[in-house]
Amino acid sequence: MEKMEIRMYSSVVEFIFSSSRIIYGDEGQPGLEVGRNRKNGKIVAFMCYSFPHLYNRILNGLKEKPIPGRFSVESVDEGDKVTAICDPRVKNAAMPEIVQWVWEKYYAHLEESITVGTLHA
Amino acid sequence: MAARDFSSAGKTFIDYKGQLNVIVYSILTPLGYQAHVSAEALGHLAKHSVAARRQTDIPHILNNPDLIVPSYEFPTVHLYYKVAGKILLVVAIHQKSDIRFVATMHDTPAIKGLKEKKISQTDFLYIRGGFQWKKWK
Fold first, then answer.
1. How far apart are CA A120 and CA A46, in angstroms?
2. Taking CB atoms and an 8 Å cutoff, what residues of chain A touch B94?
3. What does the pLDDT average to over A26-51?
């Protein structure tokens, strides 16, 4: 099981499980760039350029092309604060569970507020 | 180095996560819009080894890119590419309302979606004369 740090800025979300020098590229994983260790080529991270817009694409992509392994989210870095994570939902979790957790905890309420704003416009 | 425009410095915008961003400087891009660089974005980039080292290149990349393409997965994200030796540097620009701003920066071995034919030359928003884009599939 890999320990994972999640970093967010705006709609960019990174799922990092090694702090080595990362080179990101498109390897056909829907919605996600694959981050590899520049020295040994090992996969050490995933990144989404626009998580709230690509959330469904990521989840569907994980069904078609699963990312193996299980992960334990240790912290979430939102830029202005880093939060240690104790939520059992993202301990020893598969990638789809973590993606869903990020959506529900950090982005779903923003979409609701946009929808409400539109309805009242 | 490209001239940084400080006329919007101190102004704020709200990003996709609802966070308040304070503009540090802006860069006029070849697409004719200003891309804003916020203190919050620079803070995010500072945590990445590549981006932290290359932060000072952002104005040059945005003002003199080799290639600009939309992300085929979400085309309002514009990807600015610049060759840096054997790799490409890419700066991702987000748009929210009328505001365009730097979201992230990293190095990459290839132009996103080119090898898989998710994008083609007709999708390019800007290409610098002489740029050998076919080398970066």
1. 37
2. 10-12, 50
3. 93
Structure tokens of A27?
């390897």
Q: Using CA atoms, how far apart are residues B70 and B43, in angstroms rounded to an integer?
A: 25
In chain A, what residues touch B53 (CB-CB under 8 Å)? none
Q: So what's the ipTM on this one?
A: 0.90
Quick check: A22 and B48 CB within 8 A? yes
Q: Is there a contact between B94 and A30 if contact means CB atoms under 8 Å apart?
A: no
The pTM of this model reads 0.92
For A52-73, b/e burial (b = at least 16 CB within 10 A) is bbbbebbbebbeeeebeeebeb
pLDDT for A26: 94
User: Where do the domains of chain A lie?
Assistant: 2-120
Is the pLDDT confidence value at A119 over 70? no
